Amino acid sequence: MAPTWRPDLDDHTALNDAPLKQTPLHALHLSLGARMVPFAGYDMPVQYPAGVLKEHLHTRDAAGLFDVSHMGQVELRAASGTLEDAALALESLVPVDVLGIAEGRQRYALFTDETGGILDDLMIARLPGRFLIVVNAACKHADFAHLKAHLGDRFELTLLKDRALLALQGPRAEGVLAELWADVAAMRFMDVAEALIHDVPCIISRSGYTGEDGFEISIPADKAEDIARRLLDHPDVLPIGLGARDSLRLEAGLCLYGNDIDTTTCPIEAALEWAIQKSRRTGGARSGGFPGAGAILDAQTNGTAIRRVGLKPDGKAPVRGGATLYSDATGTTEVGKVTSGSFGPSVGHPVAMGYVDTPLATPGTTVFAELRGKYLPMTVSALPFITPTYKR
Length: 392
Known about the structure:
Elements: H1 26-31, E1 35-39, E2 42-47, H2 52-61, E3 63-67, E4 72-77, H3 83-91, E5 106-112, E6 118-127, E7 130-135, H4 140-151, E8 156-159, E9 163-169, H5 173-178, E10 192-197, E11 200-205, E12 214-220, H6 224-232, E13 237-240, H7 242-251, H8 293-302, E14 306-313, E15 324-326, E16 334-344, E17 349-357, E18 366-371, E19 374-381
Parallel strand pairs: 3-13
Antiparallel strand pairs: 1-2, 3-9, 4-7, 4-8, 5-6, 6-7, 9-12, 10-11, 11-12, 14-17, 14-19, 15-16, 15-18, 16-17, 18-19
Helix pairs in contact: 2-7
């Protein structure tokens, strides 16, 4: 029997009695027999009848279709001035090179606060005449307010409430999508393009959050179910829920906002310095000028006390987020914390990530997690646990 996924995403589940929202594909999920759970204020599919294990492995072997319509899609236009002006304005909120994003490309970015903490992680795509910003579901209203407060008097900002978002992931994703739009074969990792799929205007990016080649497709909400059904009609495609989405991204060493990164986390602690391009670093042409720049650039130069790492538990028992890490099996000296943990179906053993004291961050180091009153050895491991298959 496929294992039942236990949500380890408490920061993203509904925390009050407000009615759960539904994505445009809610009826489709029910018709496919999905088990639904609260997530980021939405009623979302955690798994389908195939089960989490099969969904995970099918995505690695063929193609999986995910509903990520709960995420926020924000359009930024230059009401006056140029799109370059808008890029420079957006750079005042993120420590990445927005000006350098070419049309038809996108970049991973971070909203930071004045202390150098992470407000959210996001994607910024440059399209003709505008930027499309995709943010996390639990943060989207706060992110939009953040953008409005800092940019709204100079630029047009729109939270796109009438669009859905699908992710088609896996080694056969290109072949599946090419049957609906042949030009997809020319795209490379982090390309973004506008396309007509059965006369429906879509925005397609070659990206995702599984470590696999794949695509994210922004679609008008009223056409989303039709496009989703066409994709699911392909024999290589299975619907995939939140359970497999979590284990796939964890094997790929990708952070989940609210678990692995948050406002208490510096991007350098989180091993995300690769996302800060040279022009925004110390000595760069446009270094600084973003919230928390002093703390972040100091950390880049001088290092941090803790560091995000991969963790491989001994044995078959997963170690979940929240477990405390110790230097030895006596539990006397605390040295870190697990932030995400699950079984890794593709690698055949439990996987986790978390933060340890920087001197212990070298792969091969042993630390100990407290698990039901015992201390389980965990080996510090390089991330990711699998080899990504992005089409470069």
